[in-house]
Design a protein that fits this description.
Blueprint lengths: L7 E6 L5 E3 H13 L4 E4 L5 E6 H14 L4 E2 L8 E2 L15 H9 L9 E4 L13 E5 L5 E7 L6 E3 L3 E3 L3 H14 L1 H4 L7 H8 L6 E2 L17 E5 L2 E7 L5 E2 H13 L4 E4 L4 E7 L4 H10 L8 H4 L1 E3 L4 H17 L8 E4 L10 E5 L13 E7 L9 E9 L3 H16 L4 H4 L16 E5 L5 E2 L35 E5 L7
Parallel strand pairs: 6-7, 7-8, 18-19, 19-20
Antiparallel strand pairs: 1-4, 1-5, 2-16, 3-4, 3-15, 8-9, 9-10, 9-11, 11-12, 13-14, 14-17, 16-17, 20-21, 21-22, 23-24, 23-25
Helix pairs in contact: 1-2, 1-7, 7-8
Length: 498
C-alpha cells in the first residue's frame, strides 16, 4: 500500500478478524471527524482506510494518539487478520467453531503479524480460504485446523502435514513468520520453494498436533446475498454495501450510536468491503430503517454487482468494475456461482473464479482505449481454486464486456450440458434425479429464497397450500424482504443443480 498522491495519504486501521466493537469504531470515527475527514472505506482484508490530506494528517495523528488507536500511514507492514466470524449463524453453522474460539485466537496474538493470516470455517464460502500467507481452515475435528501456506509474493502453496491446535495458532504463526522472513532466499518471492524445509525447521517445537483423519474438502462456491435486512433465528442481520466504496463518517457514527443504544456490541466488516450488523431485534428494525433513510442508503443492489473483488484504494479498478456491471445489467447476464476479480497490480492476492488482469505492457499507457487485459478462470470456476486457465490472452477495453459475457455463457453451457454431474462431486454424493413433470415454485431473484405453496410461509402467517397468486400484494421475501414481483417461477426439481 502506498500514499495516494503528494497531497493525500492512506491511513490504515486494522480491525482484527473483521470484528470491531461499536464503541471502538466510534472513537476512530470521532477522531476522523475532528480532523475534518468526511468518508472512510473498507478493504479486502476487512480493514479500515482513511484518505487524508496533508494538512489533516497532523490533526488525525494527534486525535489517534489521544484515543490510543493503532494505525499505519502509507504502508501495510502488519496486514489485518481475516476471519469468517462474520458468516457465523447467518451464512454457516459450525459444529464447534464459535465466536469465543475466534476471539480467543485473536486475543492470543501478543505481537502484530507481518504475514497475512486467514481464519476460515470449512463449511462457508463467504470468506476466501487462500488469500492469506498462513491459511488456517477449521477441520471436522473440534479445535483443530488445517494449515495451507502460500509463500509471500508467490502462488506456491504448501499443505502443513499435521493439524494445528486452536491455542497454538498465534505462536505457530509468529514462529513461521520469523523463519520465513529470516530465510527469504528459501521462502520469500522465489520461483521454487520446498515447503518441507520449513516444516523440518520448526517441527521440533513443542506444539499440540494431530494427523488429519481425512483431506480437506472445500464446499462448492456460492456467494450468499449479503445486503439488506435478513432474518435468522428470531433476529435480523443487516448488510450494507456501497457502490463507491465510501462510507460517510456521519452515517457510521449513527450506526455506532444505534448499536450502543440497542446493546449490539460489535460491527463486522467483510472482504467484499461491506458491513454486517447482527442481532437486530424485530422492534429495532424501525430505528435502523430510519438511519438508512436519513443517509439515503440503498440496500437493493443486483447480485451481479456484489460478487466482485478489486484492489484496495484503486480508482481505476473501481471505475472498470462499474463499467462492466453496467454492461452486465444491460444484457441481463446471470453470474450466479461466479466471482470476478480485477487485478491492476501484480501479486495483490485477490481471489475469483474469473480474473481480469491488466497486462503489464499497458500499465504505462494513459488512454483507456489502449489498455489491454488478460482473462483467466479457475479450472472448476471455484474462486478458492489455485489452478488457473488463460481464457483470452489479450482483450481490449472495448472487447472486455463481450468477452466476459461469452465466458459466462461457456460456464453455464458446461453446467447444463449433461456431463457436469459426473465431473463434479456433490456434498452428499447423491445422484441428481429429475421428475418427468416440472414442479413450479417461486424463487426470490436476490437471495434465492424459495416460496413453495406446499409449505407456505409460517413466519409470515401464510398457511400451507396457499398459491403464490393468492399471496397479498404487500408480501415480501422472508429472508431479504424483496417485494412479491421480484420472485421468479422456477422448476423445483432443478433447484441446486447449477
Amino acid at each position: 500500500m502506498s500514499e495516494l498522491t503528494d497531497n493525500k495519504h492512506t491511513i490504515k486501521v486494522n480491525l482484527p478478524g473483521g470484528i470491531v466493537a461499536a464503541g471502538d469504531l466510534l472513537d476512530i470515527l470521532s477522531a476522523a471527524e475532528k480532523a475534518g475527514i468526511d468518508n472512510v472505506s473498507l478493504g479486502n482484508r476487512q480493514q479500515l482506510f482513511l484518505s487524508v490530506r496533508s494538512e489533516q494528517l497532523e490533526d488525525l495523528e494527534h486525535e489517534f494518539s489521544i484515543a490510543d488507536i493503532d494505525y499505519e500511514i502509507g504502508t501495510d507492514t502488519y496486514p489485518n487478520i481475516v476471519s469468517s466470524y462474520v458468516s457465523e449463524d447467518i451464512f454457516s453453522t459450525s459444529n464447534w467453531l464459535r465466536e469465543g474460539v475466534y476471539k480467543d485466537i485473536l486475543d492470543l496474538f501478543e505481537d502484530k503479524p507481518k504475514l497475512k493470516i486467514n481464519l476460515a470455517d470449512n463449511n462457508q464460502t463467504f470468506i476466501p480460504f487462500f488469500t492469506g500467507n498462513l491459511n488456517f481452515i477449521a477441520s471436522d475435528t473440534s479445535n483443530y485446523w488445517h494449515l495451507h501456506i502460500r509463500f509471500p509474493k508467490t502462488n506456491i502453496f504448501y499443505t502443513w502435514p499435521t493439524l494445528v491446535y486452536t491455542e497454538d495458532i498465534p505462536s505457530l504463526s509468529l514462529t513461521l513468520e520469523k523463519v520465513i522472513l529470516a530465510n527469504k532466499a528459501h521462502f520469500y518471492d522465489q520461483p521454487e520453494i520446498d515447503g518441507n524445509l520449513l516444516f523440518l525447521e520448526i517441527a521440533s517445537d513443542k506444539k499440540i498436533t494431530r494427523n488429519p483423519e481425512e483431506k480437506l474438502v472445500l464446499p462448492d462456491f456460492q456467494l450468499p446475498y449479503y445486503e439488506g435486512f435478513n432474518r435468522y433465528d428470531d433476529k435480523y442481520w443487516l448488510g450494507i454495501y456501497k457502490r463507491n466504496e465510501q462510507y460517510s463518517v456521519a452515517f457510521l457514527k449513527d450506526v455506532c450510536a444505534v448499536c450502543l443504544q440497542s446493546r449490539i456490541g460489535q460491527i463486522n466488516t467483510t472482504p467484499w468491503k461491506s458491513l454486517i450488523i447482527k442481532g437486530i431485534s424485530a422492534d429495532g428494525r424501525k430505528q435502523w430503517n430510519w438511519i438508512l433513510a436519513k443517509h439515503r442508503i440503498n440496500v437493493r443492489h443486483a447480485s451481479n454487482e456484489l460478487n466482485w473483488q478489486i484492489e484496495d484504494q484503486c480508482d481505476y479498478a473501481l471505475k472498470l468494475k462499474n463499467h462492466l456491471v453496467r454492461q452486465f445489467d444491460k444484457d441481463d447476464i446471470r453470474t450466479f456461482k461466479l466471482c470476478f476479480a480485477i487485478k491492476i497490480n501484480p501479486k495483490t492476492g485477490l481471489f475469483g473464479s474469473v480474473i481480469i488482469r491488466k497486462k503489464a505492457d499497458s500499465l504505462e499507457k494513459n488512454r483507456e482505449q489502449q489498455d489491454n487485459f488478460e482473462i483467466l478462470h479457475t479450472r472448476d470456476f471455484n474462486p478458492n481454486s489455485k489452478d488457473f486457465i488463460v481464457y483470452k490472452a489479450s482483450v481490449s477495453l472495448e472487447e472486455l464486456p463481450a468477452s466476459l459475457v461469452e465466458l459466462c455463457d461457456s460456464f453455464y453451457e458446461i453446467q447444463t450440458n449433461g456431463n457436469i454431474f459426473s465431473a463434479v462431486e456433490t456434498n452428499f454424493n447423491e445422484e441428481v434425479k429429475f421428475t418427468e413433470a416440472p414442479v413450479l415454485v417461486h424463487q426470490c431473484k436476490h437471495c434465492q429464497t424459495v416460496y413453495d405453496e406446499s409449505f407456505g410461509d409460517e413466519l409470515s402467517g401464510i398457511a400451507a397450500g396457499t398459491p403464490f397468486t393468492h399471496l397479498p400484494d404487500d408480501y415480501t421475501c422472508q429472508m431479504c424482504e424483496s417485494p412479491k414481483e421480484d420472485f421468479m417461477t422456477v422448476d423445483k426439481n432443478l433447484l441446486g443443480v447449477i
